[in-house]
Design a protein that fits this description.
With about 140 residues, this protein is of the alpha/beta class. The chain has helices at about 35-45, 55-65, 80-90, 125-135, and strands spanning about 5, 15, 20-30, 50-55, 70-75, 95, 100, 115-120.
Length: about 140
């Protein structure tokens, strides 16, 4: 599971270069807590990073179906529908790294649920570094 699959669509928001390296990362951020979602969106907004916020799995899937092609997904796996969201997105997307936020990461990496896990509580810089490292890797390299 770890990587979700998406059909890469040309997007005016950003994307990857010919070698698959992110040039302007589009980060799909999924969290059912509106305050946390806003905080994550603010933390992940930079000159070269564009967060696309989704307050639910249905919202995230709708954004993907409308053409948003993220370079990475940041998802709160502690939300009630966290694992179901990944399953739904996996059906709609091509390889995209998943960064899971969790208060009990357990075996998420071992099970292939995520490419990276950021344990709650976390510092914003820790998440930003994780996203940067993830997007520095060419697609399929993680």
């Amino acid at each position: 599971m770890g990587r979700i699959r998406t059909t890469r669509l040309l997007s005016p928001l950003g994307g990857a270069d010919a070698q698959g390296k992110c040039v302007a990362e589009i980060i799909l951020v999924i969290d059912d807590n509106p305050l946390m979602l806003a905080t994550l969106g603010e933390a992940l907004t930079t000159d070269h990073t564009i967060p696309v916020l989704a307050v639910s799995g249905a919202d995230a899937l709708q954004k993907v179906q409308r053409g948003i092609a993220p370079d990475a997904v940041v998802i709160d796996l502690d939300m009630r529908e966290g694992f179901a969201v990944l399953a739904d997105l996996e059906c709609a997307m091509e390889e995209v790294p998943v960064i899971a936020l969790s208060s009990s990461p357990g075996r998420l990496l071992e099970a292939g649920i995520a490419d990276a896990v950021v344990m709650k509580p976390f510092e914003v810089g820790q998440l930003r570094s994780c996203v940067d490292r993830t997007c520095e890797q060419p697609r399929g390299a993680l």
